[in-house]
Automatic annotation (TrEMBL), chain A:
It comes from Thermosyntropha lipolytica DSM 11003. Signal peptide: none annotated. GO terms for molecular function: acyltransferase activity. This is Stage V sporulation protein AD. SUPFAM superfamilies: Thiolase-like. Gene3D superfamilies: Stage V sporulation protein AD.
TrEMBL record, chain B:
It comes from Thermosyntropha lipolytica DSM 11003. InterPro entries: MFS_trans_sf, Spore_V_AC, SpoVA. It holds the Pfam family SpoVAC_SpoVAEB. This is Stage V sporulation protein AC. NCBIfam families: spore_V_AC. The chain crosses the membrane at residues 34-54, 66-85, 97-115, 127-152.
Length: 336, 154
């Protein structure tokens, strides 16, 4: 049997882990978007009955994990490990959610690429035979991210045309070695790519090269053409990042159009006040755990390449004049 | 070799910058300017009405100006607390940042934001997190101008 590694950055799974269930919880604005009805729960406000936004975000993550476990007809005790992360310092949303669930946690930080990172690692753990029931989850909250990375939320700051709106959303999937549902067949670990972009209010432009680099590596490593997939979906490049990615595809000789889109572009309506589109870990997470996996279950989508993109700077590194390093991980999800 | 690589990287980044600038939509400068002009103008007009009212009550111009500032700061703080000022700032930009009301907004927004971390390490420590630079450099400039005045007068 040949090994599981293909090319330089890609792995294929011999016993592709099954996504037996998924759950998504989103904030009020995401609920008003075009996919609002696909999410398991739409919160009426940003507090979720908690005293702080941070607690609300952690609760969203915790409840999404619980719901996913429930939908897989499992008990919380059955889960052997949670792979989770978020945008906040020391990934507190994931830490506190795992504390309340009292389950083993492997905390991750891949900024907004965390959904793909946790799926990728979870699939490796399951296919590797280390665990058979794993949860991969992530969350973001508009206000917690805003106050950590930008300004106090009540401050009257004018956004630019390139500014993206951090999604308030959490998503969780249960990965199992056996069962029915879409399977994770391959994954590509992304390189950190930095094209010297320094504008914190234009993250899409910073992340687009990382996304294209990973997609190219994935296709090269597996010797696949883009139309192998019904849909190649980046995480949160937004309108401008997506437009740039499309230009870069042409330069690199890959043309996934018209099967290419971006979660940050899809999550909100044209008339919602989000400027260049959505961003944040929850953006890719809720789109995957809501509409995409549902469409796969229904059979209207068969082969998906999810490429979640993350910008890996911190406010400190930005104030010190550093540019924005970015990463993108790709996960192939297929339904037979 | 390493130098060459660095140079190549620079060229690549420069080219990428050009691509970004080509794709990026132009900011709506005219619209932003009109919003800033109108909102900034309205804030100042309101303040002028208040000042004239106080002067009409027989106050000196200087006293009336102080009271006017206090009232404008109060109104901005109230609007921030009600969640209105940030909506205004989104559209008006400099129009609502430059007047004294913008300064009040920056302080009250920080105070509200960090209240959840307590009054000492939250509000107390972070209240000037946005307005701080204005104060520091305002004080510094005031000090040097004061110094200058002493020398010129002597």
């Amino acid at each position: 049997m040949p090994g599981k590694k293909r090319g330089k950055q890609t792995v294929v799974f011999h016993n592709p882990p099954v996504i037996t269930s998924s759950a998504s919880i989103v904030g009020p604005d995401e609920g008003k978007g075009p996919f609002g009805s696909y999410f398991d729960q739409v919160l009426p406000d940003y507090m979720f009955g908690e005293k702080t936004w941070e607690k609300a975000e952690s609760k969203m993550l915790r409840e999404a994990v619980k719901l996913a476990i429930n939908k897989a007809n499992l008990k919380e005790d059955d889960i052997e490990v949670i792979l989770a992360g978020d945008l906040l310092n020391q990934t507190i949303s994931a830490n506190y959610a795992a504390r309340d669930l009292s389950l083993p946690l492997l905390g991750l930080y891949g900024a907004c690429s965390t959904m793909a990172e946790s799926l990728l690692l979870g699939a490796m753990l399951v296919d590797g035979g280390f665990f058979s029931k794993v949860v991969a989850a992530t969350s973001s909250h508009h206000h917690t991210a805003e106050r950590q990375f930008r300004f106090p939320t009540e401050q009257g700051v004018q956004p630019t045309v390139t500014t993206q709106w951090t999604a308030t959303a959490a998503g969780a999937v249960v990965l199992q070695s056996e069962g029915s549902g879409p399977r994770i067949t391959a994954a590509t670990v992304g390189k950190v790519v930095d094209m010297g972009q320094k504008d914190m209010s234009n993250m899409g432009s910073a992340m687009a090269p990382a996304a294209v680099d990973t997609i190219k590596a994935h296709l090269d490593d597996l010797k696949r053409s883009p139309d192998y997939y019904d849909l190649i979906l980046t995480g949160d490049l937004g309108k401008i990042g997506k437009a740039i990615a499309e230009e870069l595809f042409v330069v690199k000789g890959i043309v996934p159009k018209p099967f290419y889109n971006d979660c940050g572009v899809l999550l909100y309506d044209e008339n919602q006040d989000v400027n260049a589109g959505g961003s944040g870990c929850g953006c890719a997470a809720c789109m995957l755990c809501g509409p995409l996996l549902k469409k796969m279950q229904e059979g209207s989508l068969k082969k998906l390449l999810l490429v979640a993109t993350g910008a890996l700077m911190s406010p400190t590194s930005m104030f010190q004049g550093e540019s924005i390093p970015c990463v993108a991980h790709a996960v192939a999800v297929e339904m037979n | 070799m390493e130098e060459q690589n660095l140079e190549l990287k620079n060229i690549e980044q420069k080219e990428y910058d050009d691509l970004v600038n080509k794709v990026k939509p132009k900011p709506p400068v005219l619209k932003n300017c009109i919003w800033a002009f109108v909102v900034g103008g309205l804030i100042c007009t309101l303040a002028q009405f208040i000042q004239n009212y106080f002067m009409g009550l027989g106050m000196s111009r200087q006293d009336a100006a102080s009271y006017t500032s206090i009232i404008m700061i109060f109104l901005a703080a109230l609007a921030t607390g009600l969640g209105v000022y940030d909506e205004l700032g989104k559209r008006a930009g400099a129009g609502s940042i430059v007047p004294i009301t913008g300064f009040a907004n920056a302080i009250v927004a920080s105070a509200m934001e960090f209240k959840r971390e307590g009054y000492i390490f939250g509000v107390g420590a972070r209240i000037f997190s946005v307005a701080g630079p204005t104060l520091v450099f305002g004080f510094a400039v005031a000090f040097f101008i004061g110094l200058l005045k002493v020398f010129i007068n002597s």
